[in-house]
Write a structure and sequence with these properties.
The longest helix is centred in the last third of the chain and has 44 residues, at 102-145. The chain is mainly α and 146 residues long. The chain has helices at 2-32, 40-61, 64-69, 71-93, 102-145. The protein is elongated and about 70 Å long. Helix 1 packs across helix 2 (40-61), helix 2 runs antiparallel to helix 4 and helix 4 (71-93) runs antiparallel to helix 5 (102-145). The protein is 86% helix and 0% strand.
Length: 146
């Protein structure tokens, strides 16, 4: 029961955070583009996208089974769960229209790949630093022990 409560609390927090920030970004972009209206329908779709993203994130990054397999496994699982739904929601929200232009798909694909690579590089840098710190502490401990 505690695991379910923890999952739901994490999900609530993730939805609140992502929906709030994404709503703020949508309002700013709308105002800058001269569109003074954000429809309830659009916000509902935005909320559903945030809900699915939060569920996917919580399952992939806050789950012990996924954590044991490593960050790259969790990241890949998240992308597999989230990106197809994101594409469908972009169509439903009118961000993508019809088949889309090759340039639009290249831009979307480029953003996805770049974000994946940046996440992988950050993970490798952090893990390298953690392993160096662990080695330093282990060496210091072994010197004290001898």
């Amino acid at each position: 029961m505690d695991k379910i409560k923890g999952f739901l609390k994490g999900l609530r927090d993730a939805v609140a955070f992502s929906f709030s920030w994404l709503t703020i970004c949508v309002i700013i972009v709308s105002l800058l583009s001269g569109n003074k209206i954000v429809t309830v329908s659009f916000l509902t779709k935005l909320f559903l996208l945030c809900l699915w993203g939060s569920i996917s994130f919580t399952l992939c990054f806050r789950n012990q089974r996924f954590a044991k397999k490593g960050f790259m496994f969790s990241l890949t699982a998240f992308y597999i769960l989230f990106i197809p739904v994101e594409i469908v929601m972009f169509y439903l929200m009118g961000i993508f229209s019809q088949a889309g232009s090759p340039g639009l798909w290249m831009m979307f694909g480029g953003i996805v790949v770049i974000m994946y690579l940046v996440s992988a590089i950050i993970d490798k840098v952090i893990m390298r630093r953690r392993s160096e710190l662990y080695t330093e502490k282990l060496t210091a401990y072994n010197k004290l022990k001898d």
